[in-house]
Design goal:
Helix content is 9%, strand content 47%. The protein is mainly β.
């Protein structure tokens, strides 16, 4: 049996329930651009662009550049947000190519098509 003082304390702690109202949000991610060599300006074929969700580190989209260095990524992301009208940028992009340093594309606050051209540096 729990003592009266401890029971009262547990009742106080247990009654402090916080309720949040989160709204479902759908965000269309549309990203495109060209990846080039920063020194020569030539396109880089076969570069990989990966999109991560910042609060889960989950890879959610990826693309590989074509012979002209172009890429496109498009997907629908669904999540819950307590204030859907707030500015929220849940995505971060990474560009990798053999022989080059990894480049970052951030922040990605999509809803419209975002164009991110990337100049890679030899690394």
């Amino acid at each position: 049996m729990v003592g009266a003082g401890l029971a009262a304390l547990l009742a106080l702690v247990g009654c402090n329930t916080v309720t949040t109202t989160e709204q479902p949000v759908e965000m269309m991610v549309q990203l495109e651009g060209t990846v080039t060599d920063g020194a020569t300006g030539l396109p880089i074929e076969g570069a990989t662009i990966e999109i991560l969700v910042t609060f889960t580190n989950e890879e959610f989209g990826a693309a590989t550049t074509d012979a002209a260095g172009n890429y496109e990524i498009s997907f629908l992301y669904r999540f819950f947000l307590s204030d859907p009208s707030s500015s929220f940028c849940p995505f971060l992009g990474f560009v990798e190519a053999s022989g080059y340093s990894i480049e970052t594309i951030s922040p990605l606050c999509t809803g419209n098509v975002e164009i991110h051209d990337v100049e890679m540096l030899v690394g």
